[in-house]
Amino acid sequence: MTASATAPTAPARQMWPLYAAGFTTAFGAHGIAANLGGSSRDAVTSLMVLGSLLALYDGAEVLLKPVFGTIADRVGARPVLLGGLVAFTAASAVYVVADSPGWLWAARLGQGAAASAFSPSASALVARLNPAAKHGRAFGSYGFFKSIGYTLGPLLGGVLVWAGGLRLLFAVLAVLGAAVAVWAALAVPVVVPLPRTRQTVLDLARRLTDPAFLAPTAALAAATAALSVGVGFLPVSGRAAGLGTIATGAAVSLLAACAAVVQPWAGRALDDGRLTTRAGITAGLLVIAAGLGCAMLPGLPGVLLGAAMIGVGTGLITPLGFVALAATTPAERLGQTMGAAELGRELGDAGGPLLVAAVATLTTLTHGYAVLAVLLATGPLIVLVRRRPLGG
């Protein structure tokens, strides 16, 4: 039986805390990452320390998301969600109280570990609390609020750091985590873990190497890779073209806004039968590839077109990828699947910028965009060619 095949549609009051949890993990990740090296009194001044702190958070997510996803299947997603939010609150409060460089490491590691718990649990609950026919809308809305968190994190985080340093930002995150935890405890219902058949390591390997898992996970990783490349390298292209920080900042905001707006639309279109997961994901990858091609053009038009198309493509793929995973996953294994899919996204988040940076170092940034665009377009083009009738 696939996930939520017969579940009633969840009331809005049950879903809003899950959307808030998605916002929290995104806001916390980007809000701190974008401001660790700022100009406040407690800012990180060493590039090596800064890079290590950034890697610490992501490393915790890579290692722990599949683990906590599996635990959520065993004990229930709701307890793992609440425990993760409480742990996020405690980790954020650690630095507020201690206010020392050593405790900053502990706080950042704790935040990453906590997000590894409540992020896949929230995704699993989105699927469990809604019927399959409403998954598009549910995941579209969840992705919308995560995108808002990614968008507002650097901006609001910068304002908070300017006003009171990193301690104020960590304090706000502690309050946010606590508020969402209380809200979820009051509004999110208990979802009883489903009986599970015994699963060997070989069974898990087979399921995670099945095309039904690999294809949407690879698409999610590709979209995240392109998103990270856009956020990180489009400002570099803008500066090389003589654009100021306002223009390059507007391009990044445009990318995030397009991704946020398109996700609910894509989810509704899927639920209404106007879009299929295969067609939407294929179109999303091709749009992203075209956006990377636009980023190769000089000047502001190339930067803005690239940002908009990368955002649109990412917005198409993200909810459809998660819906495809939920549709082919036994309900009793949803947490494990969502955790493994989040791992794929984290690898894309790191791999995309590394690939573009490596190519750009040897050649130019334009060539880096081109290589990633070709990689993203290859899969959909092969599928389209195979589906053409012979002689057509």
Describe the structure.
81% of the residues lie in helices and 0% in strands. The chain has helices at residues 12-33, 47-75, 77-98, 101-128, 135-187, 201-208, 211-240, 245-271, 277-295, 299-327, 334-362, 365-387. The protein starts with 11 loop residues before the first helix and ends in a 5-residue tail after the last helix.
Task: Describe this structure in a few short sentences.
This protein is mainly α and 392 residues long.
What is the secondary structure topology, with strand pairs?
Elements: H1 12-33, H2 47-75, H3 77-98, H4 101-128, H5 135-187, H6 201-208, H7 211-240, H8 245-271, H9 277-295, H10 299-327, H11 334-362, H12 365-387
Helix pairs in contact: 1-4, 1-5, 2-3, 2-4, 2-11, 3-4, 3-5, 4-11, 5-8, 5-10, 7-8, 7-9, 7-10, 7-11, 8-10, 9-10, 9-12, 11-12
